[in-house]
């Protein structure tokens, strides 16, 4: 795999500082039942990194002490961590809103058959990855049979009340482009998703989030192999929008890796660019208990243009109304 950090190290990205912390995003491990081309985590079935129960309890302790309102669980497939359900149940008992970033096909893995029922019982918000509403496109990007499994899981979530009008069970979908292009306008694509999935499969959902592909890890390496890395970076920079800088996720979200070390965002975690805090080379979550992060500097490199290009991109979709494509 081609290393992309040397290609983004020198940067002219504007300096940025953290705002008040609102969300704790925790990566429970890099193991996944899929190996997607666009994956910035380089997750897959062969990965063995997994958060221990001891670190899970440290996450719980931080949530309680910092009085945060939202826990965002990611991976890999976060549900494959054996302590996933313990963390979810405990966080919900604390009154914390929990988000599960689910690839949908994990429900058909051994031992995960009752996952939708568990999520519904604990009122967990599901953010489900579905990179296209067309079967051929999804299977080409993620593997044969992935689309069918995804549809079956979405239908099951719907049967439990997820995505239904007036229901408190939130089901959001995620779109990623299939190549080195900016995503289309979020609102228009959401309408297309909604109409096609409703007509063809009877599926309902709340929102569609469009995410730009980040030029790091597996996707970045693919760009380098195809000689498209510099072209993609030029596209991101040409479409930089200063307006998006105020809403990027690193300003209100703290990223935690499977060992409990902290980063400004999930992308910096994958690049091993730790949070800057009191001159430490690396900071653990337990070191932040009682600490204030507001106005701490954020580590930025050229990949940050991926979050600020066009309509902007964050873990919860577009930051602005319309993209500024060339």
Overall description:
The protein has 326 residues and is of the alpha/beta class. It has one domain: TIM Barrel (Alpha-Beta Barrel). Helices cover 31% and strands 11% of the residues. It contains eleven helices and eight strands. Strands 6-5-4-3-2-1-7-8 form an eight-stranded mixed beta sheet. Strand 2 (70-74), helix 3 and strand 3 form a beta-alpha-beta unit. The longest helix is centred in the middle third of the chain and has 16 residues, at 186-201. The radius of gyration is 19 Å and the shape is globular. 47% of the residues are buried. The model is unreliable at 322-326 (pLDDT under 50).
First CA to last CA: what distance?
Answer: 30 Å
CATH superfamily placement: Aldolase class I
Number of helices: 11
Second-tier CATH architecture: Alpha-Beta Barrel
Strand order of the largest sheet: 6-5-4-3-2-1-7-8
Question: Approximately what portion of the residues adopt beta-strand conformation?
Answer: 5-15%
Write the layout of secondary structure elements.
Blueprint: H1 5-8, E1 23-27, H2 53-66, E2 70-74, H3 84-93, E3 97-102, H4 115-121, E4 125-129, H5 135-142, H6 146-159, E5 171-175, H7 186-201, E6 207-210, H8 217-225, H9 229-238, E7 253-256, E8 262-263, H10 266-270, H11 305-308
Parallel strand pairs: 1-2, 1-7, 2-3, 3-4, 4-5, 5-6
Antiparallel strand pairs: 7-8
């Amino acid at each position: 795999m081609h290393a992309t950090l040397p290609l983004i190290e020198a940067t002219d990205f504007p300096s940025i500082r953290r705002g008040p912390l609102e969300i704790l995003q925790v990566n429970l491990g890099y193991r996944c039942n899929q190996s997607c081309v666009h994956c910035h985590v380089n997750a897959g079935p062969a990965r063995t990194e997994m958060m221990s129960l001891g670190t899970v309890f440290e996450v719980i302790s931080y949530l309680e002490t910092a009085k945060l309102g939202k826990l965002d669980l990611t991976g890999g497939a976060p549900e494959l961590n054996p302590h996933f359900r313990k963390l979810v149940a405990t966080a919900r008992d604390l009154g914390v809103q929990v988000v599960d970033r689910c690839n949908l096909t994990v429900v058909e893995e051994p031992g995960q058959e009752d996952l939708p029922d568990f999520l519904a019982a604990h009122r967990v918000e599901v953010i489900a990855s579905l990179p296209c509403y067309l079967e051929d496109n999804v299977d080409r990007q993620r593997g044969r049979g992935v689309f069918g499994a995804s549809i079956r899981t979405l239908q099951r979530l719907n049967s439990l009340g997820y995505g239904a009008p007036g229901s408190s069970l939130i089901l959001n979908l995620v779109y990623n482009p299939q190549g080195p292009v900016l995503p289309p306008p979020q609102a228009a694509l959401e309408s297309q998703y909604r109409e096609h999935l409703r007509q063809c499969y009877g599926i309902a959902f709340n929102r569609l989030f469009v995410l730009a592909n980040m030029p790091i890890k597996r996707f970045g390496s693919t760009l380098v192999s195809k000689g498209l890395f510099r072209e993609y970076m030029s596209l991101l920079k040409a479409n930089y929008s200063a307006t998006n800088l105020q809403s990027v996720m690193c300003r209100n979200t703290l990223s935690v890796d499977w060992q409990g070390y902290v980063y400004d965002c999930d992308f910096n975690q994958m690049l091993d660019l730790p949070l800057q805090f009191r001159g430490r080379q690396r900071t653990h979550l337990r070191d932040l208990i009682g600490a204030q992060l507001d106005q701490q500097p954020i580590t930025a490199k050229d990949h940050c243009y991926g979050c600020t290009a066009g309509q902007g991109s964050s873990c919860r979709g577009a930051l602005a109304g319309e993209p500024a494509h060339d």
